[in-house]
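Figure caption, in words: inputs first, then the predicted bound structure.
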Amino acid sequence: MNSTFASSSPVTYSDYFNDISQYNVHLNVFERAWAAWYAYMQNDVLATGIMSFMMHEIVYFGRCLPFMIMDKIPYFRRYKIQGQKMPTLSEQWACAKLVLLSHFTVELPQIWLFHPMSQYFGLSSTVPFPHWTTMAWQIALFFVLEDAWHYWLHRALHTPRLYKMIHKLHHQYSAPFGLAAEYASPLETMILAFGSVGIPIVFCAFTKNLHIMTMYLWIIGRLFQAIDAHSGYEFPWSLHHFLPFWAGADHHDVHHEKFLGNYSSSFRWWDAVMGTEAGSASDKKLREKKVAVKEE
Ligand SMILES: *[C@@H]1O[C@H](CO)[C@@H](O)[C@H](O)[C@H]1NC(C)=O
Ligand SMILES: [Zn+2]
Ligand SMILES: [Zn+2]
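Bound structure (2-acetamido-2-deoxy-beta-D-glucopyranose present):
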């Protein structure tokens, strides 16, 4: 391409960004970057696909990294819930390999369907973004709904047949670490991912009011939640100390250790109300026996 042409019509991403900035002074820098990306790609399916996949990889591995570094620093050992079981680097690498394999083989093709599907159900991908209050209440709603979905489906995955067929793989690590968050069979990924991706899409099908950006922020929040819950670290500054109903690693770590109880993802209320918070199968049998004795 010759330079006279390049100077008159946009070619590089920054050409598009500058052009859009010039004519859309009302947009903020993120909105300009977003619009420039779609204009530069000239193919919305590809633009959304690449952005979604990159976002997932960067957030997932980026969020795991600080925990992997902490594992190597003895000072942080005091915050480790199961301090006697430290994941080795080769264990973490084996885990990362399977996670990557499933990202490239199972998730990638589905991410490609995301744009057509979002068009069909009316998700918006235009600028400006929705007001932040709209994003905030929608994300809060998705957290609550996903948690309910996760509680019941995860609990179902712990019935003997489904456990052996599907969920056993996720429980390979009885002392979890961040990377183990998405270590699961493809079937489990699809069942549980419906809570994260399907619920917002169903919400949009009814309300016609959802932006892909809101969806991204929600997924990022959900990824942070899942990785923190598997990190194996409980800090004095962990979120549940400030939001008592937040689950966190304090809630999920024991689930991996004992294979029972604490089935929800983000919040504590489902396990509290359904009586699945307190521990082992023998506790449960004991409680049932007591109830049976009372009823006689
Ligand atoms: C469930 O989570 C609570 C904290 O919310 C924890 O005290 C308890 O040990 C956990 N029990 C199981 C079985 O995971
Ligand atoms: Zn489980
Ligand atoms: Zn888990």
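The longest helix spans residues 89-121.
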